[in-house]
């Protein structure tokens, strides 16, 4: 569909950025932007054969963008799928009378169907490896009684248990592939009961499990919990068998926290538990948690944290202090669909030294590893990914660079007239403008290959002493291209208004309106 409109555009072409309009732009705004660029790129305005050829190519690209965005049907397709959606077969038969909202709904339905088919054909292997470590000899030593025993001068650390399980999941069932350390299997039936849910299961040892869950257990207006940023659920479970028990719990999950209140009455264990987890809204998805559990077996206090250390890995550590359990350190690593769990039992007693080392030791090791190993590895990985991205987009970037340079040459005459008009009214004149990645003084030698001069393209966008840029990547503007693929970019502008110098730096996807009083450069500074 798009190819028939003229010059073939790259798959990542931003039509909104090319026309410098908002994604919510009206037909009048689109038409005004289109006319402005047509006057700039019209081939009949250029006599030089080379400039005429370049103008014709850019004119066709602008015309293609306008044709797509001015038609509600093609615009709806482009907004969801981009240019790839326009090239899909079958859209010609879609009814022209359908609204943009109806087209979006239809495409989203088709997308969900394709996703469901893809999930039905995909398996998701999961695995857990748990290695229990007994390190009580570090703190509970009997040096006086065993000082003459060979090898007794060194603490004995040993593995006392190991558990390995693997499973393959599909959308229809879960099939255990191999399992060690578990004593049976279970068949589970599930059904619905109003807004709540119930299930019944039986195991190989004759246990019976019944349960009920749902927001309706907490309040009649259960939809209030679901439509907001939090979700509160109640659970009730009864287990019959050798270890009969009834368990009830309330779980409240929000964007920044997770709270659990639970109580169990049963044989041989009855307990009450409260657990809280705080979720930091940072890039590493840091979470700090703590819990208190009191029952017939004693009291357990747990605290810990977890953090994302790479794209697919999450590392966590929890300290458990209890009576009569003692002190333990639990280390957990989630790597993609695999889980590695290492519970380390330190002592059977409540020793302050064991609590101190269990708390401080993992922190020191983590920060040392993060600084010396993880951070350099992630930096090198990012560089490799950026290099691959640059290689894969090298031809497109070269084409965009050539188009930008051609556009700048075509803008020269228009810019000269704009500057003359702005000078006559003491209006807006762009003195210098740069776009790309700005580096510090220690790396200034790389600045030339990271930043491009966009003075002429910006001056060409000035109208009535105003310059307005929308919330979109500046790389799509006429006369611009991406000088540093995959890296953060900014736009730095030095301009003159009413004879006074102004300066502003804007993020790549940030909207910009100049002139502004806040951009003024203080003459005394």
UniProtKB/TrEMBL annotation:
It is a peripheral membrane protein. The keyword Transport does not apply. It is found in: Mitochondrion outer membrane. GO terms for biological process: cristae formation. Residues 14-82 form the J domain. PROSITE patterns: DNAJ_1 (PS00636), DNAJ_2 (PS50076). Belongs to the DNAJC11 family. This is DnaJ homolog subfamily C member 11. It comes from Geospiza parvula.
């Amino acid at each position: 569909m798009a190819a028939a409109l003229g010059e073939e555009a790259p798959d990542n072409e931003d039509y909104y950025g090319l026309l410098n309009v908002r994604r919510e732009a009206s037909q009048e705004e689109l038409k005004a932007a289109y006319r402005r660029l047509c006057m700039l790129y019209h081939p009949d305005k250029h006599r030089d054969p080379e400039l005429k050829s370049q103008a014709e190519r850019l004119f066709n690209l602008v015309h293609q963008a306008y044709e797509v965005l001015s038609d509600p049907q093609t615009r709806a397709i482009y907004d969801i799928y981009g240019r790839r959606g326009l090239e899909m077969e079958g859209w010609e038969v879609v009814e022209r009378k359908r609204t943009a909202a109806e087209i979006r709904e239809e495409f989203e339905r088709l997308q969900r169907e394709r996703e469901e088919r893809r999930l039905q054909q995909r398996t998701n292997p999961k695995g857990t490896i748990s290695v229990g470590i007994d390190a009580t000899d570090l703190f509970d030593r009997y040096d006086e009684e065993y000082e003459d025993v060979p090898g007794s001068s060194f603490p004995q650390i040993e593995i006392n248990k190991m558990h390995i399980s693997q499973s393959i999941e599909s959308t229809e069932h879960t099939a255990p592939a191999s399992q060690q350390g578990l004593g049976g299997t279970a068949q589970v039936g599930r059904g619905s009961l109003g807004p709540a849910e119930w299930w019944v299961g039986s195991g190989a040892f004759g246990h019976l499990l019944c349960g009920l869950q749902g927001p309706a257990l907490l309040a009649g207006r259960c939809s209030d919990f679901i439509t907001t940023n939090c979700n509160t659920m109640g659970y009730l479970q009864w287990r019959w068998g050798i270890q009969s028990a009834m368990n009830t719990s309330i779980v409240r999950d929000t964007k920044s926290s997770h709270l659990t209140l639970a109580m169990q009455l049963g044989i041989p264990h009855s307990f009450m538990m409260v657990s809280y987890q705080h979720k930091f809204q940072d890039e590493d998805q840091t979470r700090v948690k703590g819990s208190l559990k009191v029952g017939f077996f004693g009291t357990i206090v747990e605290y810990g944290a977890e953090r994302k250390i790479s794209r697919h890995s999450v590392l966590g550590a929890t300290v458990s202090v209890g009576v009569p359990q003692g002190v333990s350190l639990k280390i957990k690593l989630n790597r993609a669909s695999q889980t590695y769990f290492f519970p380390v039992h330190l002592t059977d007693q409540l020793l302050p030294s064991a609590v101190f080392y269990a708390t401080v030791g993992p922190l020191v090791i983590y920060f040392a590893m993060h600084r010396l190993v993880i951070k350099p590895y992630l930096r090198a990985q990012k560089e490799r990914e950026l290099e691959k991205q640059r290689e894969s987009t090298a031809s497109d970037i070269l084409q965009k660079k050539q188009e930008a340079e051609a556009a700048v040459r075509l803008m020269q005459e228009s810019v000269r007239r704009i500057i003359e008009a702005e000078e006559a009214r003491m209006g807006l004149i762009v003195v210098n403008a740069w776009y790309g990645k700005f580096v510090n003084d220690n790396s200034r030698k790389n600045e030339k290959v990271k930043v491009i001069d966009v003075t002429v393209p910006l001056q060409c966008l000035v109208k009535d002493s105003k310059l307005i840029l929308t919330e979109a990547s500046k790389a799509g503007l006429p006369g611009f291209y991406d000088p540093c693929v995959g890296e953060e970019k900014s736009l730095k502008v030095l301009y003159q208004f009413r004879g006074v110098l102004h300066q502003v730096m804007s993020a790549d996807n940030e909207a910009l309106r100049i002139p502004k009083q806040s951009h003024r450069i203080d003459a005394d500074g």
